[in-house]
Amino acid sequence: MVQRPIIKAVVKTFKYFFGLRFEVKGLENFKVEGPAVILSNHQSVLDMMGLMEVLPDNCVQVGKKELMYMGSVGLIMYLGGVIFINRKSTSSAKMVMSEVAKTMVAENVKVWVYPEGTRNCTGDLLPFKKGAFHLAVQAQVPVIPVVYSSFTSFYNPKTKLFTSGKIKVEVLPPIETKGLTSDDVTDLSDRCFSTMRETLFRLSGHPGEAKDSS
Ligand SMILES: CCCCCCCCCCCCCCC(=O)SCCNC(=O)CCNC(=O)[C@H](O)C(C)(C)COP(=O)(O)OP(=O)(O)OC[C@H]1O[C@@H](n2cnc3c(N)ncnc32)[C@H](O)[C@@H]1OP(=O)(O)O
Ligand SMILES: CCCCCCCC/C=C\CCCCCCCC(=O)OC[C@@H](O)COP(=O)(O)O
């Protein structure tokens, strides 16, 4: 898909306009052979810049179906291969995800999912939805967590705070799912949640947590 690198290159440039800097660690963790499910925290539309900053080749994202109707932006997402799901219908979303489990393996594609299922700019994580973990277990592919530090020091839509800022990004080591079954989904989700929350607090200098000094 020739359009994906073009979308990535264009969206990446938006950071200069918004005064955002990214400091990325762990990109080598994306170098797993074959498909994988990538998970990340989701704070705001600003995440689209963070997504493009690290997006590996051959990777599509899962998005809510309402985004498809956002005019030309929806069309660009469609052309970029975004998989649209209906969050209001668990059965329809599950059906789409099980198709994705088959095609990602057949076509060697990585799938990026926001397991919180919605934007959340509180400086913490929302409880994870299960879809991404069922997907990884059904496809028997690793899960790769990616964590972005909290935006709260420079971005808060409620108080209309929006200044320039630095976002720390860490791509964590892959977590294998080979041999896991649907009975293991809750454990897998809990494990990813704890690891990602710990990393979020470390990267953001959350009170009571060791602040990342780099
Ligand atoms: C110039 C401009 C250019 C712009 C270009 C930019 C391009 C980039 C675009 C990027 C798009 C980004 C979009 C971001 C979003 O839209 S985030 C919102 C959408 N994403 C999600 O919602 C993903 C996370 N959600 C899930 O995974 C959910 O689980 C979901 C599948 C949607 C189902 O929702 P829900 O029912 O609310 O979830 P639960 O997790 O509570 O599940 C209920 C029970 O069902 C079981 N379950 C879930 N999934 C499966 C499955 N696949 N197979 C089997 N069973 C499943 C789950 O275990 C629950 O049952 P139990 O309680 O465990 O018994
Ligand atoms: C003041 C902020 C202005 C920010 C503009 C930043 C520009 C960023 C680059 C890309 C252009 C727009 C792409 C739009 C994609 C929107 C993805 C998104 O964030 O969808 C929200 C969805 O996940 C969850 O929705 P809800 O939180 O449940 O509703």
From TrEMBL:
Question: So what EC number does this one have?
Answer: 2.3.1.51
> GO molecular function terms here?
1-acylglycerol-3-phosphate O-acyltransferase activity
Q: Look up the record and name the pathway of this protein.
A: Phospholipid metabolism; CDP-diacylglycerol biosynthesis; CDP-diacylglycerol from sn-glycerol 3-phosphate: step 2/3
Please give the GO cellular component terms listed in this UniProt entry.
endoplasmic reticulum; membrane
Q: What InterPro entries does its record include? A: AGP_acyltrans (IPR004552), Plipid/glycerol_acylTrfase (IPR002123)
Q: Which reaction does it catalyse?
A: 1-(9Z-octadecenoyl)-sn-glycero-3-phosphate + (9Z,12Z)-octadecadienoyl-CoA = 1-(9Z)-octadecenoyl-2-(9Z,12Z)-octadecadienoyl-sn-glycero-3-phosphate + CoA; 1-eicosanoyl-sn-glycero-3-phosphate + (9Z)-octadecenoyl-CoA = 1-eicosanoyl-2-(9Z)-octadecenoyl-sn-glycero-3-phosphate + CoA; a 1-acyl-sn-glycero-3-phosphate + an acyl-CoA = a 1,2-diacyl-sn-glycero-3-phosphate + CoA; 1-(6Z,9Z,12Z-octadecatrienoyl)-sn-glycero-3-phosphate + (9Z)-octadecenoyl-CoA = (6Z,9Z,12Z)-octadecatrienoyl-2-(9Z)-octadecenoyl-sn-glycero-3-phosphate + CoA
Q: Give yes or no: UniProt keyword Transmembrane.
A: yes
Q: What class of enzyme is it?
A: transferase
- Give the GO terms filed under biological process for this record: phosphatidic acid biosynthetic process
Pfam families cross-referenced by the UniProt entry: Acyltransferase
* Annotated transmembrane regions: 67-85
Domain Phospholipid/glycerol acyltransferase span(s) in chain numbering = 36-151
Highest taxon, organism lineage:
Eukaryota
Q: Which UniProt keywords apply?
A: Acyltransferase, Lipid biosynthesis, Lipid metabolism, Membrane, Phospholipid biosynthesis, Phospholipid metabolism, Transferase, Transmembrane, Transmembrane helix
**What's in the domain note?**
The HXXXXD motif is essential for acyltransferase activity and may constitute the binding site for the phosphate moiety of the glycerol-3-phosphate.
NCBIfam families, A to Z: AGP_acyltrn
Similarity annotation:
Belongs to the 1-acyl-sn-glycerol-3-phosphate acyltransferase family.
Chain's role: Converts 1-acyl-sn-glycerol-3-phosphate (lysophosphatidic acid or LPA) into 1,2-diacyl-sn-glycerol-3-phosphate (phosphatidic acid or PA) by incorporating an acyl moiety at the sn-2 position of the glycerol backbone.
- Which PANTHER family does the annotation name? 1-ACYL-SN-GLYCEROL-3-PHOSPHATE ACYLTRANSFERASE, 1-ACYL-SN-GLYCEROL-3-PHOSPHATE ACYLTRANSFERASE BETA
Q: Protein name, please?
A: 1-acyl-sn-glycerol-3-phosphate acyltransferase
Organism this protein belongs to: Geospiza fortis
Taxonomic lineage from the root = Eukaryota, Metazoa, Chordata, Craniata, Vertebrata
Q: Which gene encodes it?
A: AGPAT2
